Amino acid sequence: MKGDSSLTTGPALRAILPALLLLVLGACKQPPDEVVTTQSSAEERGRVAIKQVGCGACHEIRGIDWPRGRAGPSLIGFDDKTPIAGELANTPAALAAFIRNAPAVVPGSTMPPMPVTEREARDIAAYLYSRQDD
């Protein structure tokens, strides 16, 4: 096809251009629902709670070096992911509720209820939102 400029101009290009535009737009990362700011004291308590409860047994979490489970989704870049479990708005309150009792919040979730207090769940959420991964 050397020298055939009909693929880069004319009808062929006009035919595939809309498909290429949709592909590029579809690949764009959706922005987070909101920018979340956290307090460093809550983040540290959250890091401690994550280690005590063992969230790393199922999830890869930035700042938690061991274990690095793969049974659940990676939580690296969590602040940019939306929605939580494919259903919940990516907000601290929704995440804390999901952490405490995922099956009640998202029926059919494979994540078990976690033995954490409401405060620990909020602190874990603070830790996850504080990890700037981009």
From TrEMBL:
Superkingdom of origin organism: Bacteria
Keywords for the protein's UniProt record, in alphabetical order: Heme, Iron, Metal-binding
Keyword RNA-binding recorded: no
Gene Ontology molecular-function annotations: electron transfer activity; heme binding; metal ion binding
Residue ranges of domain Cytochrome c in the record: 41-132
Keyword field contains Protein biosynthesis: no
The protein, known as: Cytochrome c domain-containing protein
Organism: Croceicoccus marinus
